[in-house]
């Protein structure tokens, strides 16, 4: 595996090189002191991961990673930054998969690189890597985006209202959670729901991020996106009812079909093609995208496996089963009856269908 580090300060690169030698990493490392030098080296040998400083002369980290994205889309892109102006935040969100605050602990950085390489090894399927490589933004519902902007522009903004609107849209939720779960803002454990993400980031940071950025502002009305947003919200609400709490299951249900926001992945009326290990391609693509963005791995694993719960070996109706049922019913399909029978939950299906009917009769917008 090839990892490239880019920083205009040679002493920083020397420190990383020394730390790598002590870490006994099992990847090959290369070092560049500028964006142009890094691009020239990548032309000779592409890298699996590029780690770049943000603030560099001539070509900063965001510009470098934008070129890496366009020319080597399968490369995982990590950015190091010591400042958080809104414009810089927007530009980093546009091009980077992961964010790390400077100065950073080398052990934490190497752990992130190791997990990124493991992730890449897990999703080796060229179809998955090719589809995801250039994706940093997904289309949000223009209606939801407008409502969020209106809410956060008000001086009396209510965090709960903002969280509810953000939590109704898969694209907006995933992006806010990407930032909240990044090492740039991390203060410990992983964030599993949008309300906790906003609390973690702080309302002012969310306001600056949304109002100062344009990564959703150019969204155009798209009936498909609106329909997907509606079904995802319905699945999330149903998962919350079944689970009896907020958090993991509602979030995973909201994001379960996030890959369908990518034009190449939209349903054509037939079955989703299979990726490696016979996982539906849209499930693999969605899981890989969320994992690249640093969302918790338990959410990633549910997104990857929710369409085929019987592949789970524990035989227990758990978070995966809840999301499977909620997503299936919200999309007007029947859950896997064999799986429900094996887990002793088939008799609950009429109750869940009634929950869905009640939710459909309750306005949420």
Describe this structure in words.
This protein is an alpha/beta fold and 365 residues long. It folds into three domains: 2-122, 3-Layer(aba) Sandwich (Rossmann fold); 142-212, no CATH class; 223-360, no CATH class. Helices cover 54% and strands 7% of the residues. It contains 18 helices and five strands. The protein has helices spanning 10-23, 35-44, 61-71, 86-95, 106-122, 126-132, 142-153, 159-166, 170-180, 194-201, 203-212, 223-243, 248-255, 281-292, 297-305, 319-330, 337-342, 349-360; strands at 2-6, 28-32, 49-53, 76-81, 98-101. The protein has a five-stranded parallel sheet, sandwiched between helices. Helix 8 (159-166) crosses helix 10. The longest helix is centred in the middle third of the chain and has 21 residues, at 223-243. The protein starts with a strand and ends in a 5-residue tail after the last helix. The model has no long low-confidence stretch (mean pLDDT 81). The modification 4-aspartylphosphate is found at residue 53. This is HD-like signal output (HDOD) domain, no enzymatic activity.
């Amino acid at each position: 595996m090839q990892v490239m580090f880019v920083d205009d300060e040679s002493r920083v690169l020397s420190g990383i090189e020394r730390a790598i030698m002590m870490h006994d990493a099992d990847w090959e490392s290369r070092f560049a002191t500028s964006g142009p030098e890094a691009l020239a080296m990548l032309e000779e040998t592409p890298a699996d991961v590029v780690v770049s400083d943000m603030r560099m002369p001539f070509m900063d980290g965001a510009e470098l990673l934008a070129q890496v994205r366009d020319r080597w889309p399968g490369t995982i892109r990590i950015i190091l930054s010591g400042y958080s102006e809104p414009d810089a935040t927007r530009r980093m969100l546009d091009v980077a998969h992961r964010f790390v605050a400077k100065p950073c602990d080398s052990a934490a950085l190497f752990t992130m690189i190791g997990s990124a390489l493991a992730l890449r090894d897990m999703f080796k399927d060229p179809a998955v890597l090719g589809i995801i490589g250039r994706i940093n933004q997904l289309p949000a519902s223009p209606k939801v985006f407008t409502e969020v902007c209106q809410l956060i522009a008000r001086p009396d903004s209510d965090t709960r209202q903002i969280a509810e609107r953000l939590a109704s849209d898969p694209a907006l939720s995933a992006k806010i959670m990407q930032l909240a779960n990044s090492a740039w803002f991390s203060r410990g454990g992983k964030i599993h729901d949008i309300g906790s993400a906003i609390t973690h980031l702080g309302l002012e940071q969310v306001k600056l991020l949304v109002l100062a950025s344009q990564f959703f502002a150019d969204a155009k009305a798209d009936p498909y996106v609106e329909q997907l947003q509606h079904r995802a919200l319905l699945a999330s609400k149903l998962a919350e009812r079944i689970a009896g709490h907020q958090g993991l299951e509602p979030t995973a249900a909201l994001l379960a079909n996030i890959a369908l926001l990518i034009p190449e992945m939209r349903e054509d009326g037939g079955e989703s093609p299979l990726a490696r290990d016979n996982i539906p391609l849209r499930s693999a693509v969605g899981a890989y995208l969320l994992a690249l963005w640093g969302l918790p791995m338990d959410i990633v694993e549910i997104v990857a496996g929710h369409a085929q719960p019987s592949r789970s070996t524990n035989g227990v109706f758990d978070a995966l089963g809840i999301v499977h049922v909620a997503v299936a019913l919200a999309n007007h399909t029947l859950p896997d009856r064999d799986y429900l029978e094996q887990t002793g939950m088939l008799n609950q299906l009429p109750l869940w269908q009634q929950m869905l009917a009640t939710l459909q009769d309750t306005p949420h917008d």
